[in-house]
């Protein structure tokens, strides 16, 4: 069955790149609505922006969706990961600015609010996208791949010159609430040199040591250090789940990312959708539904930081 949340959930914070305050409210929505943003600060044109792969505008630093009227919402990946990881299939998200608040740089606060709101089962079947054969995209050393599997699995590898990050790899089966337990509290990260470069371009104006893990060589500059020794690769997996959820339905397949980012994952979804023989729709019976992210999530699964 498709789901939505039982009650509206508000969130307030600052946009990572704009540095401006923003408020959003995740609201219940009917079956087959999907995840849709609505810019409540605008009028006179279409303000609804579907959070779907074919509305994603390629941008290196975050995931941005745009509608036909040019209305956009950016940095949606952490909220999208929380929705997917909590098993929310339908929601209307009212937002009073162009960027989702960064909060603490992870998805933990979003997960906390969604789990506390609870889910409502809707009287409509849930469809999933089953991967039938491998689809892959490459760009330089970066690789993003989807291959057949009975559940959503994420396998990610990164390699950074800063010793505080270095080489990291992790693989997770996303069933049984593993996103909430293992990934949801992992924060976005960057190098101190990159922060300075972004600010020179008018970006990351809302970035602080409290909402991102900032590293400089072997040193972690953010207070309290890391939440996990491999927090960086965990966050990349969090991003991947959020970006994969723009497929518009749960995916049954194995995602492999090597040095991949938001743009690569969207290119992968576009390549997948362009090859109809590489995937098929399946109706989720109880057996399939039990393997989806978010099934069986409880408050006890939430990380302490939430």
Give a written overview of the molecule.
It contains 7 helices and 21 strands. The protein is of the alpha+beta class and 306 residues long. The chain folds into 2 domains: 119 residues, 2-Layer Sandwich (Ribosomal Protein S5, domain 2), CATH 3.30.230.20; 175 residues, 2-Layer Sandwich (lpxc deacetylase, domain 1), CATH 3.30.1700.10. The strands form 6 sheets. A 5-stranded mixed beta sheet has the order 2-3-9-4-5. A 5-stranded mixed beta sheet has the order 12-13-20-14-15, covered by helices on one side. The protein is globular.
Overall tally of structural domains: 2
For the record, give the distance between the C-alpha atoms at the N and C termini, rounded to a whole number: 28 Å
**What would you call the shape?**
globular
Mean pLDDT across the residues is: 92
Q: Fill in the CATH topology of the largest domain.
A: lpxc deacetylase, domain 1
SS field, number of helical segments: 7
**What structural class results from the helix and strand content?**
alpha+beta
For the largest beta-sheet, the strand count, sense and barrel status come to:
5 strands, mixed
User: Which parts are unreliable, with pLDDT below 50 for 5 consecutive residues or more?
Assistant: none
Helical coverage, percent range: 10-25%
In which order are the strands of the major sheet placed?
Answer: 2-3-9-4-5
What would you report as the Rg, rounded to the nearest angstrom?
A: 18 Å
Name the helix and strand elements from N-terminus to C-terminus, one letter apiece.
EEEEEEEEHEHEEEEEEHEHEEHEEHEH
CATH class of the largest domain: Alpha Beta
């Amino acid at each position: 069955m498709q789901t939505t949340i039982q009650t509206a959930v508000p969130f307030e914070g600052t946009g990572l790149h704009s540095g401006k305050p923003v408020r959003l409210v995740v609201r219940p929505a009917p079956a087959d609505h999907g995840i849709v943003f609505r810019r409540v600060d605008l009028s006179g044109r279409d303000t609804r922006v579907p959070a779907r792969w074919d509305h994603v505008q390629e941008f290196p630093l975050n995931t941005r969706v745009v509608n036909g009227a040019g209305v956009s919402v950016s940095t949606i990946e952490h909220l999208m990961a929380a929705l997917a990881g909590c098993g929310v299939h339908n929601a209307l998200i009212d937002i009073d600015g162009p960027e989702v608040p960064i909060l603490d740089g992870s998805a933990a606060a979003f997960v906390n609010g969604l789990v506390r709101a609870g889910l409502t089962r809707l009287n409509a079947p849930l469809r999933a996208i089953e991967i039938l054969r491998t689809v892959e995209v490459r760009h330089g050393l970066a690789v993003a791949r989807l291959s057949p599997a009975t559940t959503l699995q994420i396998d990610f590898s990164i390699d950074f010159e800063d010793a505080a990050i270095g080489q990291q790899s992790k693989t997770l089966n996303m069933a049984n609430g593993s996103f909430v337990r293992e990934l949801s509290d992992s924060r976005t990260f960057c190098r101190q040199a990159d922060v300075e470069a972004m600010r020179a371009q008018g970006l990351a104006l809302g970035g602080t040591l409290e909402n991102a893990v900032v590293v400089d060589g072997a040193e972690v500059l953010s207070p309290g250090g890391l939440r996990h020794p491999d927090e960086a690769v965990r966050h990349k997996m969090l991003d991947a789940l959020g970006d994969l959820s723009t497929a518009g339905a749960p995916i049954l397949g194995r995602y492999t990312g090597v040095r991949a980012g938001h743009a690569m994952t969207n290119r992968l979804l576009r390549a997948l959708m362009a090859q109809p023989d590489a995937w098929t729709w399946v109706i989720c019976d109880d057996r399939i539904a039990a393997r989806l992210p978010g099934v069986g999530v409880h408050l006890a699964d939430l990380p302490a930081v939430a």
